[in-house]
Amino acid sequence: MGAPNSEHIDTSNEYAYTEIVCPHCGKVCSAAVIARTQKWPYVTWVRCPGCLFGAVINGDTVSPARGAGEEVEGLPEDVEQAYNEARRNISASAYTSAELMCRKILMHVAVNKGAKEGDTFAEYLSFLESQGFVTPPMKPWVDLIRKRGNIATHELPASSKREALGTLSFTTQLLRSIYEMEYRAKQFMSDQDDDAVHAPLPPRSGMPM
Fold first, then answer.
1. Backbone φ, ψ for residue 149 (5° rounding)
2. Residue 145 contacts by C-beta under 8 Å, 6 or more apart in sequence?
3. Torsions phi, psi of 100, nearest 5?
4. Mean pLDDT for the chain?
5. What is the pTM for the complete model shown?
6. Angle at 80 between CA 75 and CA 86, to 5 degrees
7. Within its chain, how far is the Cα of 24 from the centroid?
8. Which among 31, 81, 108, 135 has the fewest CB atoms less than 10 Å away?
9. For residues 155 and 206, which has the higher predicted lDDT (pLDDT)?
10. What are 20's strand-pairing partners?
11. Nearest CA to 102 among 65, 37, 150, 51?
């Protein structure tokens, strides 16, 4: 049964698509409208054509809320899941949980880069430094993430939105340094190789142009 005062939309309807920023994949898309109410308050059920997840538009508000912070490219699956969980926690006002996740992300990164699963947190950090993934200029970022995570774990006062956003921003920059720049460099080099393959061959010496 349909919702009261709602209608199903077919592709010939002028309301068949609506542009949103998908709260799941973060892409701007023309989402397919599955159904919408005909009277105020307007509610629209949509589906992203990219990731295929659904969302609900209540008036001008898209639910679920998009994660806080910024997208980072080139993340391994488990690191990306942990990072997105931290972002969603902030959007849900779960600031202490967000800082705990940022601390846990350091563990995911260390294991992903070759550390032994089950090591202590200090051993994870030592591994990242010894392998050059955390350079001297980055050490204050990592130390801040560590300290904020420890406070969230061991102290009673809840984290504030400002504190959680700050911890997330340092986590974002760390992930960009370790993963995204390498990912983009590989893409750039691949594009350069493609250009070289498709470039016209120079004329042989002594042959007419």
1. -65, -40
2. 102, 103, 105, 106, 167, 170, 171, 174
3. -65, -40
4. 87
5. 0.70
6. 140
7. 9
8. 135
9. 155
10. 29
11. 150
In this structure, what token pair is assigned to residue 5?
């005062």
User: 11 near 49, Cβ under 8 Å?
Assistant: no
pLDDT at 195 over 80: no
- Distance (Å, whole) CA 12 – CA 72: 37
Closest CA to 80 of 207, 146, 175: 175
Is 178 within 8 Å of 133 (Cβ atoms)?
yes
Question: Do 83 and 171 touch, CB atoms closer than 8 A?
Answer: yes
- Residue recorded with tokens 């910024």: 70
- CA–CA dist 130, 33 (Å, integer): 51
Residues forming beta bridges with residue 44, ordered by sequence position? 36, 57
User: 54-58 and 28-37 as β-strands: parallel, antiparallel, unpaired?
Assistant: unpaired
**% helix, strand, coil for the chain, step of 5:** 50, 15, 35
Q: What are phi and psi of 29, to 5 degrees?
A: -150, 160
DSSP assignment letter at 54: E
Burial 168-184 (b: 16+ CB within 10 A, else e): bbbbbebbbbbbbeeee
Query: Which residues, listed in sequence order, are joined to residue 18 by a DSSP beta bridge?
Result: 31
- Give the pLDDT confidence of 70-109 residue by residue, as tens digits: 989 999 999 999 999 999 999 889 999 999 999 999 999 9
Task: Answer yes or no: are the C-beta atoms of 115 and 127 closer than 8 Å.
Answer: yes
Closest CA to 171 of 94, 84, 92: 84
How far is residue 91's CA from residue 98's CA, in Å, rounded to a whole number? Answer: 9
